[in-house]
Every structure is written in C-alpha cells, then in structure tokens.
Amino acid sequence: MAIGRYRIQVEATGFRHTQRxxxxxxxxxxxxxxxxxxxxxxxxxxxxxxxVSAIQTESTRVSTNLTTKLVEDLPLVVAGQVRNVLNLAxxxxxxxxxxxxxxxxxxGSGWDMQMDGSSLVSGTxxxxxxxxxxxxxxxxxxxxFNVESSGxxxxxxxxxxxxxxxxxxxxxxxxxxxxxYMRNNAADARGFFAQSxxxxxxxxxxxxxxxxxxxxxxYNGKNxxxxxxxxxxxxxxxxxxxxxxxxxxxxxxxxxxxxFIKNGADGKPFVIQLYDPATTTQxxxxxxxxxxxxxxxxxxxxxxxASKYMGFRDPSMLPNVPGAGILSNYFxxxxxxxxxxxxxxxxxxxxxxxxxxxxxxxMDGTKLDQFGADGPSGLPGIFNSGQVWSRKNISGRFxxxxxxxxxxxxxxxxxxxxxxxxITNLSCTELGKGSAAKLGLKNTPxxxxxxxxxxxxxxxxxxxxxxxxxRGRDLSVSNDVTWTKGSHTLxxxxx
Length: 495
What we know:
Elements (H helix, E strand, L loop, with lengths): L3 E7 L6 E9 L19 E4 L13 E5 L1 H6 L11 H5 L5 E3 L3 E3 L8 E4 L2 E2 L8 H8 L6 E9 L11 E6 L7 E10 L15 E13 L1 E2 L3 E2 L4 E15 L3 E3 L15 E3 L5 E3 L3 E9 L2 E6 L12 H7 L19 E3 L3 E3 L2 E13 L2 E16 L15 E17 L4 E18 L9 H5 L27 E19 L2 E7 L1
Parallel strand pairs: 2-3, 7-10
Antiparallel strand pairs: 1-2, 4-9, 5-6, 7-8, 9-10, 11-12, 12-15, 13-14, 15-22, 15-23, 16-21, 17-18, 19-20, 22-24, 23-24, 24-25, 25-26, 26-27, 27-28
C-alpha cells in the first residue's frame, strides 16, 4: 500500500456503517486497524475522526519515521557536498555517523538501504557508504523516510539495520518547486592568523515538477497516469588552507647533505649523518657502517633511476621560507577543490484500474572530485600526490502492485543498477605514461600508467600511485504476497 492518509470504511448487513478517517500509512510499516461494529441498519453510521496512538503490536521493530512534512521542512547542512539521504538518516537516534555510518550499533557496512522496497546499496561493501548518496534520488523527491534498528521484517532480516524511503509520485494538479542553497566566503570570517578568508563558493540548486501526463488531443492522464521529476546539482570551489611542506635543499640534489640539520629533543641543532650502505660489517649481533666524508654522497654512488627521477622535478620546487632550514621550508597557498554533483530522477505511475497499479522510476547520479585552474595544494608539477575521482550510477525500477482479492495483495519489483568509479592520480596523466621504462625500473607490473611515487623520512613524499576503476551491474527481482485470513496475516515472497 502506498504511503499517505486513508479513510477506512467497514459495513456489513445488520450493522451500522463504520468509518475511520486520517489513518496514516508510513514507509515500511505494518498497519493494523481494528473495528467494533454496532448493531443497527446500514444507513446509520459511526464516524471516528481521531484515535489514540496505540502500542505497535504487529511487529517488534524499533524505528524512526520522518513524514513528508518533516522531510520537506527539516534544514539539512550543505557542507561540501549535495544534500543526500544519509543527512536524513542521522536524524534518527539509532543511526550514527562518526567514522562510518552505522545503525543500532551494527557493523559499518551491515546496513541496507531500500528505495520503494528495492535495495540500492553498492555491490561491494567497500563503497556502500560512499555510493549510497549517489544512487539515491534527490532529497526533494523523497516522500517519507524510515530508519529501523531492530525487529525488522523477515525480508530485511539479512541486514543489521535498514534505511527505507518512498519516492514522491505525481498527482492530478501540476506542482513543483525551485531552490538554491548558496554559501560564499564573502560572508565568512577569516582565521585569527590568516590575512583573508579562504575561497569557499558553493551552490546546491535544483527543481521538482509533478502532475498528470497530458498530451493535447491525444491523452489525458488525470486520475490515471502521473509523473514526478526532480533534479539537484551541486557546484563548489573551495580554496585549500595555506600549508607548509618539506623539500630538499638545492645542494642535496648533488649529494651534499652538510646542511641536513634538525633540532634534537634538547632543542640543540645536529647534523643527520649519512652512512655508506656498501660498508656494512657485522660483529656478533651488531652492525656498523662507515659515514660518508663531510656528509657528501659521491655522484658515482647515485642510482641511475634516482638521477633520472630528479630530472622530472619542477624547477620551482625549492625552499621559499627564509630561515626555515630543512623542515617546513616550502610554502604554498594556491590550490582549489571542486566537487560537482548532478542527480535527476523521473517517476511515472499508471493506475490501470482499482486492482492494478504500475510504477517506473529512472535515476541517474554523477559525482566528481577535481581541482580548480590553479591545481591542488601541495608540491608542483608531477610530484603532486593529488587525485581525481569520478563515480556514476544509473538505475531503474519497475513495480506492479495487484489486488487479487480483498484478502490477497501481490507486489512485484524489478530493479537494475549500473555503477562505476574511476580514480586517477595527477601523476597518471599523459606525462606519467611509460615512466617506469623511462626511469629504468624493471619488472614493473603493467600498465605503465603513472609516474611512480617516492616516500622519504623527514621530507614530503613525491608524486603518488593511484589509478584504477570498478564497474558493477546488479539485477534483482522480488515478489511479495500478503494474505489475510481471519485474524491471521501471512506474508511471503522471494528476492
């Protein structure tokens, strides 16, 4: 049964007609409404306009439900990403979102998410939390929302908590809305030591529209065929906070480490001595090496790979902080992040007759993590470890709800979902291709896609390795039958 408020009428020969108004059906709920018929003629009526909330006796579930009004009116924070379904979920007391999303103390990826009765979680738990906001409809297309932490129905028993929500459907009147949530650093205060507030410009915008499908002189879908469409986009540009990095001193590229000086625990400076690994000797369990004279490494001892690697560094990658020495000697305040999102959905409902209802939903979501024209924060050129990440999800759902008799209801759902993700390090650009061969690195597993990253002690790492993609396709078919016989209700199905 679709969510909403209903009027229930009960009548039988020899009894008064009884009616109960404003019976609310929420997302994922099993509802029972008992009636006591009074003797009398059918023309006499008993009308109940309100009733006291009863204890939930149909199930043992513990849940929090957000009605349509709450979903529409609750303010959601726009903080670096589009408003999404998980922003609503954490309103429930049984849901937590610290390091990862959990329900009722369950495992981080042990929960399920149901959209109109069909699961939309990723095929792999690795991306379950990260992909859920992409594969769900925009917030303004959600009608009701429910979070269950325990006592779930049998069809939800495989999960340690369930987030379920119903999407909005169109109606007989054309209606919609437009919105734009804006934030700009012009209204932000700067930090105590900062000269200005960092760049932060973001917009969360979109629209919804719904109504009957109407084709002039061809088809009028009033009372039969409806549509509801939604779109939400997110655009932002956030500047990185000024940061300090550590780069080698110019003479170190020639092997001169006489100025490789740090402060000890007592605050006094000392030279970090380099030792010749080729002179390692063993005496019992102790090892010893001979230090390089004057802390200088001869050019003859340079690795051919290292020599070629240093040739790729940006000429501007030199200390620019006066008097900083070897640590935190490189300062950069440039760099911006941009994370555009686009999500849209379209739902079509068709009421064939009072016993057959068809519904179709198409949803498309795309999220990108990129950098602005001035690039990311960090070291310049190919030595930067920044990454570009894209994710995409497209899904479709078909449902057929059929009232076989006044005691038997059948619901069939078919859902398909296709998702993909691509992560690329900035060193995996055209310049980075074939780098292993250029540097003389042997036995490198292919493809030779990225400029290899190096890590050091006391120095900011160079470049980074990160390239790959994942793709998945899910197809699910489920059917549920509800049969009421006397005071008993049997619910069965398959997934």
